[in-house]
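In response to the reviewer comment on reproducibility (Comment 2.3), we provide here a single inverse folding case reported in full, input and output, so that an independent group could reproduce the run without further information from us. The structure tokens appear first.
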């Protein structure tokens, strides 16, 4: 009887510890962030906006940016001093993606790390004013 109780208690401890470790792995902040980015990329939640400033003045704006990526070297294991992304360029800086701007398609852009820029989620389609 005592042996059976010890076996049940040991099994309960193993299951509890295993469940805790599985929970920590699958629901860690990093894992939840990764799952959220995967869902956002899959379903097209790409309403990110990048605004690039020079001396406090808005110089360029890009719409529908999924993410900014820090560049890294191909052969060296170091990051490069800029970020890059793809988005629609707001040529007239009116805050709305005009049909002629959308017709040009997404463009590649780079932002120096030391530059003044904002990246934010607009939560709305920039095609609609």
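Designed residues, in position order:
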């Amino acid at each position: 009887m005592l042996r059976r109780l010890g076996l049940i208690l040991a099994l309960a401890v193993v299951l509890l510890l295993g469940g805790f470790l599985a929970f920590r792995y699958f629901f860690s902040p990093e894992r939840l962030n990764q799952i959220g980015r995967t869902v956002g990329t899959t379903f097209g939640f790409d309403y990110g906006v990048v605004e690039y400033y020079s001396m406090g003045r808005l110089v360029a704006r890009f719409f529908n940016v999924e993410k900014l990526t820090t560049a890294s070297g191909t052969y060296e294991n170091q990051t490069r001093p800029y970020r890059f992304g793809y988005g629609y360029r707001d040529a007239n800086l009116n805050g709305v993606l005009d049909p002629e701007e959308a017709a040009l398609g997404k463009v590649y852009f780079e932002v120096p790390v030391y530059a003044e820029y904002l990246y934010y989620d607009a939560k709305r389609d920039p095609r609609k004013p």
